[in-house]
Amino acid sequence: ENAPLSQVIRALEKQFSVTINSENIDKNLRFSGSFTHSDLQKALLTVFEPLEIKFTFSNENTIVLVMK
After folding, report:
1. Which residues contact 43 (CB under 8 A, 6 or more apart)?
2. What is residue 15's three-state secondary structure?
């Protein structure tokens, strides 16, 4: 509930064993809600789509975030 995006990113990284490059976004944005712990793609859409943040995979375990 109203968590800083930096905290949500850390939780995603831990849950899915991925690295998320967030240097190109505002990590002070807030996220309220939850994400699925069984489907990485759905979790990423749930968190980043409402914040207008685009994500791409640079490799299997690395995700890059950019503001839309």
Report:
1. 12, 15, 16, 35, 36, 37
2. helix
Task: Output the six-digit token pair for 63.
Answer: 């995700």
User: Mean pLDDT in each 10-residue stretch from start to end of the chain (68 residues)?
Assistant: 94 98 94 94 96 96 95
Structure tokens at 27: 């990590």
The first and second tokens of residue 33, run together, are 């809600």
27 DSSP 8-state letter: T
DSSP reduced 3-state for 4: strand
Give the integer Cα–Cα distance in Å for 29 and 38: 24
Secondary structure class of 55 (helix, strand, coil) = strand
